[in-house]
Structure to design on (1036 residues):
């Protein structure tokens, strides 16, 4: 299987255009598993690991941090992400083992687009924007429009994901993930909560409990209607519980060998209410 | 007190000699069987049944054979000898010919120039199946509702134990129906073998990762229809076993392909295939009812065991006997009514795994002990102490406990280990239940404490003479040890030279290749090799020492009976003569072979009475577990343990066994399970079959109880299995203690705790 080593975004996308069944490889922690299990057999692989621009973390404007698609988890776990987008750092720490975190990237998580992808609820809760580049144009797509199903996104074959823009939020944010062991586990249910103190709103996104990441818009607006969500607000345990129940109602989990729908729904209600309580304590 | 001062810290018995293969394993240079290579080698691969139960209508291999690069394709028709194999009953086909009885059953194999060619060839083999309704619930087999899925019937073995007063009861009666899930041995070194045909095509040399070379040899040669001396086995590098390498997996297939292709054949399973390629721990359902007096003393036990043996017999009959004969655990009990079944179903075959039937029994009896304690109003420690068995007590089989049995000491020594500090107010979140998922805060966590104590038989039972052989040679100033003992990671390659050094006073000891060119060593299982092969090495070295003393005696005109080894010298016990062993053996050579046999055992009669076991070992575990009751997540904080080991021969090796066994028992308690649905395995990967990680592993605080076992050749008991047995119920008891809810099933899943 030929491997094209691209050193620029331009050469990568033109290689994609020239090879209709080529696959992009970044850390390979998803793709190599698929290849080894014979689920996919690309004729060509295009490695984009040597494209320096994809490994950059920049701040294009005041309220935005832009993370290149080639940034690995081992870097996302640390500063500056730890302070600026702490939920993303927490989500990154939950991914796999140190080896996987050294190789796996943000772009790969988006490329695979699994409902269990750990960075995706963070993107959904923060209203992140995905940057795509094709040979002819560049576009920016809201994460909500990008992911459309289980391992499905709207990326065209000749596009690569170059970066993700995360709004910098003043307030609190956190990511929690339930698995059946204490590390290196695929999530059974996960949640990211962002409390935006400027706008006085709370946003909640759920992983592993539906075909895509689920934004709990109903629970969010209910919460908005019963509290002011200003900084220093006290959230009663009744409100936290009710928020959890409402979030669980918006999830649509399934039974499988990893867990049951009932447990997943329950876990979501616990995670959502704990995250909310933490955000205002 | 005087202490003996030795000039050098020699790697003799009692010292932490390092593994000779340790550095290679850590650095990656150790050659596992899967790393082996032969010139001109082809690859072999296996086609497996996708159905739990189906009739084979036709097999067409022509398209696979026509594929470029394919050397041969074999099916049941190509088995020249016995069409079946098996450890106890030869009921498992080398290749299915008429029916497939479990998902993963081998149907054909190919040899080709590349693993990818093999994969494509397997896809080209056309098999027409008539799919049948699988038998997946053992109770359907017992009730006779299901017609036989195998000519030998659906009940593999039924055995009862009837002891004492059948109507005895007491003021306390507690019961439960306990369920144990299917655990995988999950060794890291996957199944692999390299078969090299003899140049005349009438014999084969197999390099394989196995637990018992000679048992493999006899099963393989029967299937190949070759005399035993035309099949040679050499142990390849083994990466763990835990029982999963007792049964034949790829051995016969690999040899058949090599003989047919007349080329060396390498076979190696993937992780996914490995889940289908070896037997697992029996899932079981155990009903137990304990009758006790008001003080909590056991009066009688009623029990019913159902072990799901899966499609073929493997070691199910022996696992069943181990299970039911350990109904009482390490406690006195005069009256018992026990009924036990090992059942054939269309689930994956189950067989040996560390703990061998006792793991299942222990989860039930230890859960019951806590219920008695509760009813009697005493603590989990008290109930165990007042019932603790001692040497000389009769077992429910009528056998007398002749082993050293420091049960009470195991319990008190464990209880004396300090409890861990309570969770501090400010905690490292990673150390809480949920770990890196950051699901909990300090305030969400409740801590529980639980107990488990167990008894485990050592060596084989029921009249089986599982002897071990070793040869010791002194040549060129050096000791050579030869045995067929499988080194699967347990450390016999460390221990054997320690024994030789202690007995002979020589430090330069070499282990000759581990193969079938010497007598059997028996299996590396049943916690038996230190006792059995250790006894054989010790015996062979003693015979050589006798020759050496004779030699020295005649050279120096001293009665050899006066000579002893002192460190690295030979000294006259009465006189002043002293010579270094190294000097004494100049020009001397000698070789002796020794077989170690354990005491004879008996079969059980129809009422389950008989001296069926060889010896026993005991251990206590206390678990401290943090639980997040709302999410059902756990973190095992500390395991305290005191184990009856007889004598510590290598402290480092011993603690390794304890810690590893505890991790494996923790796995069964809270995460490890092969999830089955309608006869299909739903999680054949390490993505979904979860093993404990470093964040799940507890702090282990261990005490080794050294009460010399007079029956054991080195005074040391087997220590491999006990660590994983009672730790599981201890952890579950700790979870129950934290949440106040009965838990009847392992592994305990989050939903079992919180929903
Ligand atoms: C043992 C193990 C544990 C794991 N644990 C977790 C976990 O806990 N949580 C989790 O979320 N994931 C986990 N994963 C999955 C995986 O590590 C992550 O999804 C990771 O983010 C993938 O990144 P990568 O760079 O390795 O992607 P790759 O494997 O290189 O690529 C993944 C997919 O994305 C495409 N792609 C990659 N980069 C781009 C790009 N820039 N533009 C367009 N398409 C692109 C590829 O073509 C491919 O389809 C685990 C994987 C393994 C093997």
């Amino acid at each position: 299987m030929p491997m094209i080593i691209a050193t620029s975004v331009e050469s990568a996308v033109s290689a994609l255009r020239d090879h209709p069944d080529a696959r992009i490889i970044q850390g390979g922690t998803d793709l190599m598993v698929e290849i080894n299990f014979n689920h996919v057999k690309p004729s060509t692989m295009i490695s984009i690991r040597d494209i320096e621009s994809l490994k950059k973390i920049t701040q294009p404007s005041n309220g935005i941090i832009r993370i290149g698609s080639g940034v690995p988890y081992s870097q996302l776990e640390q500063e500056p992400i730890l302070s600026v987008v702490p939920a993303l750092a927490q989500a990154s720490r939950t991914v796999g083992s140190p080896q996987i975190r050294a190789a796996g990237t943000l772009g790969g998580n988006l490329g695979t687009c699994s409902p269990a992808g750990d960075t995706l609820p963070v993107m959904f809760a923060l209203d992140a924007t995905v940057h795509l580049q094709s040979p002819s144009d560049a576009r920016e797509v809201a994460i909500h429009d990008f992911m459309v199903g289980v391992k499905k996104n709207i990326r065209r074959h000749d596009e690569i994901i170059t970066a993700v823009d995360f709004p910098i939020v003043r307030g609190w944010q956190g990511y929690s993930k339930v698995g059946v062991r204490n590390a290196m586990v695929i999530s059974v249910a996960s949640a990211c909560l962002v409390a935006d103190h400027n706008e006085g709103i709370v946003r909640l996104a759920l992983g592993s409990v539906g075909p895509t990441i689920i934004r709990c818009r109903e629970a969010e607006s209910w919460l908005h209607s019963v509290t002011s969500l200003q900084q220093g607000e006290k959230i009663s345990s009744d409100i936290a519980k009710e928020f959890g129940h409402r979030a669980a109602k918006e999830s649509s989990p399934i039974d499988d060998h990893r867990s049951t729908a009932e447990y997943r729904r329950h876990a979501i209600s616990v995670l959502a209410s704990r995250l909310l309580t933490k955000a205002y304590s | 007190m005087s202490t003996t001062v030795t000039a050098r810290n020699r790697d003799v018995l009692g010292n932490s000699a390092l593994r000779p293969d340790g550095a290679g394993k850590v650095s990656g240079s150790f050659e596992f069987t899967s790393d082996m290579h032969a010139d001109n080698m082809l690859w072999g691969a296996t086609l497996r049944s996708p159905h739990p139960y189906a009739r084979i209508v036709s097999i067409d291999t022509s398209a696979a054979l026509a594929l470029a690069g394919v050397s041969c394709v074999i099916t049941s028709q190509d088995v020249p000898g016995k069409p079946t194999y098996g450890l106890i009953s030869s009921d498992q086909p080398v290749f299915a010919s008429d029916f497939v009885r479990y998902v993963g059953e081998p149907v054909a194999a190919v040899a080709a120039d590349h693993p990818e060619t093999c994969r494509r060839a397997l896809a080209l083999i056309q098999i027409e199946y008539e799919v049948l309704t699988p038998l997946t619930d053992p109770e359907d087999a017992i009730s006779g509702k299901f017609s036989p899925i195998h000519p030998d019937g659906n009940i593999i073995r039924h055995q009862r134990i009837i002891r004492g007063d059948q109507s005895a009861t007491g003021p306390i009666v507690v019961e439960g129906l306990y369920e144990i899930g299917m655990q995988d041995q999950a060794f890291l070194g996957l199944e692999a073998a390299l078969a090299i045909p003899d140049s005349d095509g009438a014999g084969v040399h197999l390099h394989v990762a196995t637990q018992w070379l000679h048992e493999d040899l006899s099963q393989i040669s029967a299937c190949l229809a070759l005399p035993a001396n035309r099949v040679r086995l050499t142990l390849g590098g083994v990466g763990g076993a835990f029982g999963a390498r007792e049964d034949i997996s790829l051995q016969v297939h690999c040899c058949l392909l090599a003989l047919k292709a007349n080329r060396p054949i390498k076979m190696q399973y993937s992780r996914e295939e490995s889940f289908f390629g070896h037997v697992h721990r029996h899932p079981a359902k155990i009903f137990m009812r304990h009758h006790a007096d008001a003080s909590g003393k056991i009066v009688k036990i009623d029990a019913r065991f159902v072990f799901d043996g899966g499609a073929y017999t493997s070691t199910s009959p022996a696992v069943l006997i181990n299970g039911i004969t350990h109904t009482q655990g390490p406690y006195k009990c005069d009256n018992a009514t026990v009924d036990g079944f090992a059942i054939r179903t269309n689930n994956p075959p189950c067989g040996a795994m560390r703990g061998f039937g006792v793991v299942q029994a222990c989860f039930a009896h230890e859960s019951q002990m806590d219920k008695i304690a509760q009813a009697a109003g005493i603590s989990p420690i008290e109930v165990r102490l007042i019932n603790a068995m001692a040497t000389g007590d009769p077992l429910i089989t009528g056998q007398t406990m002749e082993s050293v049995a420091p049960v009470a000491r195991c319990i008190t020594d464990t209880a004396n280990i300090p409890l861990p500090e309570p969770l501090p107010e400010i905690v490292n979140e990673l150390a809480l239940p949920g770990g890196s998922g950051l699901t909990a805060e300090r305030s969400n966590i409740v801590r529980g404490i639980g107990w488990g104590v167990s008894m485990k038989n050592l060596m084989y039972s029921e009249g089986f003479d599982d002897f071990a052989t070793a040869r010791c040679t002194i040549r060129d100033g050096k000791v050579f040890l030869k045995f067929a003992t499988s080194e699967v990671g347990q450390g016999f390659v460390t221990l054997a030279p320690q024994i030789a050094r202690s007995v002979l006073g020589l430090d330069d000891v070499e282990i000759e290749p581990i193969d079938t060119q010497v007598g059997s060593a028996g299996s590396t299982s049943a916690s038996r090799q230190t006792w059995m092969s250790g006894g054989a090495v010790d015996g062979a070295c003693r015979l050589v020492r006798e020759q050496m003393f004779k030699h020295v005696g005649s050279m120096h005109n001293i009665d050899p009976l006066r000579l002893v080894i002192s460190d690295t010298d030979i000294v006259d016990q009465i006189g002043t003569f002293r010579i270094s062993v190294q000097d004494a053996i100049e020009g001397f050579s000698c070789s002796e072979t020794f077989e170690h046999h354990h005491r004879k055992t008996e079969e059980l009669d129809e009422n389950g009475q008989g001296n069926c076991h060889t010896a026993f070992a005991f251990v206590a575990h206390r678990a401290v577990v943090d639980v997040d009751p709302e999410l059902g997540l756990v973190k095992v904080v500390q395991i305290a343990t005191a184990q009856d080991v007889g004598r510590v021969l290598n402290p480092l090796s011993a603690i390794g066994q304890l810690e590893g066994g505890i991790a494996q028992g923790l796995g069964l308690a809270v995460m490890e399970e092969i999830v089955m649905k309608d006869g299909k395995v739903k999680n054949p990967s390490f993505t979904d079959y979860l093993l404990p990680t470093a964040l799940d592993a507890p702090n282990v605080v261990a005490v080794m109880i050294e009460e010399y076992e007079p029956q054991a050749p080195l005074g040391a008991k087997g220590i491999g299995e006990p660590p994983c047995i009672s730790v599981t119920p201890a952890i579950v008891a700790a979870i129950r203690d934290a949440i106040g809810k009965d838990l009847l099933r392992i592994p305990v899943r989050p939903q079992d705790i919180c929903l």
Summary: The pocket of flavin-adenine dinucleotide is lined by residues A 23-31, 33, 48, 69, 94-96, 100, 103-105, 107-109, 111-112, 117-118, 155, 160-161, 186 (CB under 6 Å). The two ends of chain A are 55 Å apart (CA to CA). Chain A has two domains: 3-167, 171-279.
